[in-house]
Fold these 4 entries.
Entry 1:
Amino acid sequence: GGGPGWVEAAAAAGERVFTPSNALVGLRLKLRCTPGDGARRYGPPREVESSGPVEAGPGACTFDSRHLYTGKACGQGALRAVSYNILADTYAQTEFSRTVLYPYCAPYALELDYRQNLLKKELAGYSADLICLQEVDKSVFADSLAPALDAFGLEGLFKIKEKQHEGLATFYRRDKFSLLSQHDIAFSKALLSDPLHKELCDKLAKYPLVQEKVLQRSSVLQVSVLQSTIDPSRKICVANTHLYWHPKGGNIRLIQTAVALSHIEHVACDLYPSIPVIFCGDFNSTPSSGTYSFINSGGVAEDHDDWVSNGEEERCNMPLSHPFKLLSACGEPAYTNYVGGFHGCLDYIFIDKNALEVEQVIPLPSHEEVTTHQALPSVSHPSDHIALICDLKWK
């Protein structure tokens, strides 16, 4: 998946290097490789010695079979989109994660270097034109992902959550797209200060408990307007988000989604009239939720159950609507998140069905692959989520 020169580059950068799964852990490794496309970056063949121990590798990875579908990039009239919550190191490396959330995962497989090697190999093998990532540590973006994906022709943009060290990243293929403009927001700030959301803000003021919760959240929305390098008349609005996580936070997620869609409408209807929208992310919402229904159908009623998701005290009834015709490009998989205590579909790539259609959805790993090591993350999968991948074409 990584291509020629990948292992050499990793070793030269002082990262852990994988050997086959039956290798001796702790062995130091000398290797001689001929770089492929990276020759201009890494120079002629040479011997390198890894600066750290060589871990036993993951063996067969959950994404190996997916790479069989994504070996080649899409043609000019199509684009391959990926949405993936990659599990922030700031959450993976806590005592709580090791003992409560992911007790089934080998401790070394939760370490950043190990997971980063897997992630870079996985993402490189997807040959994507557009990648929307959630839970991206600031340092991981700057020091690891951006340089690695740059070598594969992808430009990266980052939006941090204000109270955390992680955020959102959007990557786009440079030979297919150029960046026209960025319109990122923090939901809480936009709700309070942008006239776009005044009506919603006024409605929310009637429910002070909910209002306080919404304003406490650090969730953000990343919006990028891209232009085709082949056909400059073709532009696209790419939105990326990660909504509030709490199981009883359906009402909060509805408000966040309303802010997101109003903002996207401003960009894709007012600033750039009638450009198609792709809305990716971890919505922390199953297909039976109000949030999914709202995005998918264009509205949500004021008596929807999710308005009382955290009990009567935090009830906040209001009808919401948006003008887009959006479709979940990868459908409604049985799950995109699989941990010990939960599995469900939380991640989506919503597309503007007036302008885009799905050419193919890359199959998710089989249930057997996902559960080989009980649940996710594991030695063969770097996150507790699974990447969604689809090929889209303009209508």
Note: The radius of gyration is 21 Å.
Entry 2:
Amino acid sequence: MHSLAQEIRSFSKAKLRQQRTRVTTLTGKRVIETWRGACLRVEEEEEEAVPGGGYVRDLSADLQVGVVKPWLLLGSQDAAHDLETMKKHKVT
């Protein structure tokens, strides 16, 4: 079994796959983001945007809280701003 230090030493950027991320803005405009070296390249997608953009605005509160450790909770900003949720998990 390799140690973490050995895996880090053997890491090669050349083995990483190039990633492309499609972003749909609130207006429905679509762009493609790719990294080239240390620079972010943004280009408009060639396909026409679908009316409405396919973006669904979610205004409902996300009050889920995950207990990682008894003293470490993981949740959204909605949960952090909800006093009842914080009291339930004894956050002070």
Note: The CA atoms of residues 29 and 49 lie 6 Å apart.
Entry 3:
Amino acid sequence: MIPYQDYEFMQPFTGKVDAELDQEMHVEVRVEGVDSRQFALVMDTCWATPVNDPNYNLRWDLIIQECPNPNDDTVELIQNGVSTSSRFSFRMFIFTANSTKLYLHCAVHLCLLSNNRCSTVSSR
């Protein structure tokens, strides 16, 4: 998972990511070491927690069942299920005033491109 500073996914953040509240974040999830002609990466769900624990009870869903969370109009699914990398963006938020950290988690699967059912939405 790689956070980027720009919409073109050209400038990755390096080291610790310092983001402002409401700043647009661009995230790429990719798998390496698989044949990109045969497989696509599909993000099933992505979510944020205030601590580095994907099973923490306080969480905010960004991607649900391969689609943007309908309750968060800042989430944009840019690419999913068309290559070995998937991309989305969202606006930075915090859970509480004394919890300024955000940890991102995704559950993904690999899809065989030959079955032509890897992408639920068309990419731009």
Note: The first strand starts at residue 2 and ends at 4.
Entry 4:
Amino acid sequence: GNTVLHILVLQPNKTFACHMYSLILSYDKNKEGPGSLELIPNNEGLTPFKLAGVEGNTVMFQYLMQKRKQNLWSFGPLTTVLYDITEIDSWAEAQSFLELIVSTKKREARQILDLTPVKELVSLKWNMYGRPYFCFLALFYILYMVCFTMCCVYRPLKPRTGNKTSSRDNTVYVQKMLQESYVAYEDELRLVGELITVIGAVVILVLEIPDILRVGAAKYFGQTILGGPFHIIVITYACMILVTMVMRLTSTTGEVVPMSFALVLGWCNVMYFARGFQMLGPFTIMIQKMIFGDLMRFCWLMAVVILGFASAFYIIFQTENPENLGQFYNYPMSLFTTFELFLTIIDGPANYDVDLPFMYSVVYFAFAIIATLLMLNLLIAMMGDTHWRVAHEQDELWRAQVVATTVMLERKLPRCLWPRSGICGREFGLGDRWYLRIEDRVEPNKHKMMRYTEVFKAQDRDNYDKGSEKLETSGETLCKKELSALSLSRSTSRASSHHGWEILRRNT
């Protein structure tokens, strides 16, 4: 029976699936207990209710929610309803319904976030606890990055004592040894900041690694809504901090490499906190789509073009004096110069006091046509197309990011700082299940229409029941007479009911 329920959730015919679902549950002996068919999960740990959310079956989801709601009271256009949020709320769920929705790749599933009571539950959690905690976390992270930046700016350096080995050598300061790095009072202040930086990196790894093991690396880093790119950035940043610490303790030169990477990654991760603001959140989604979609594909083409033309430029200037044209004096510098030329950061290097090789003009002409005119305009066109596609769903993606952030904060924070949302069913004699109270206000005209609709439905139903009773009690000899009378009464009632429905349509 449980397998059939899961199959019905996946049926394309939603109306048929809902009727069959209700029919199967009518034969269930344990309707409310732990052995109920609705509470038995499949091999993936999904109950029929959670499966409807993952598959984006909004019709089945609303049908199941209507079965779970309890009308508390109704007065005129006001109605108070208790919605069962036991499986929806992520507070006590190992496999959260909200997390399943935002982590699925189906766009239809995100439409459930706009349905009652999911929309009201998310809004309650975000406004009461999610937004304040997230803003505090953003402020704390910015202060932490300021502390790390100051430690890097005032890192221990000393004047260089050795002689220069080349005219292009421009180094005047070198890194201090460990014994010389913490001597003065200013060094002790910097040591406090460095300890805070290292502790913060360790805390980041401690918080991130359990989620990677629980969700899986592919889903954790691959989902934009879950913050996948930013998780990669922050974990790499923490690793760079630990590498810098090891190099400092062992007095290894070259700590500027992991330190500079950590500065760039740490400050770029500040964009993660833009998802908490409606004005900035959609822009971060756009940036992620462009960087990890269009730009990643474009970088492969750009790398091939730069590699080919940089090699050509290096070969052309290999026999020339590097003092007159230093942009291509060795192969790494040729790669960097060609990259700058590709992005039109600099103009083509030329020294009119000396004769330039003829092949330089030919190669540079081809490079300008391919790189500047063709490939850069291709990148702009690709980004414009991505912007047009993402703009239609950026608000929907941003709301999904808010849900993912709320679930993340609810898992990380202690229970004392994040109490459970909703009302326990024991207060209304509904058991240990948790409910969310929602007040629905119907406009007066709409409320009047609904009353008319109920009256017309009841009239049709009563006429049908009366006709059925007459048909059952009539004998075989009077079958034709009763049947004709019944058809006449039905046509009369049908005409009056039809007239009432016409009035209702015109008013609507």
Note: Confidence is low (pLDDT under 50) at residues 470-494.
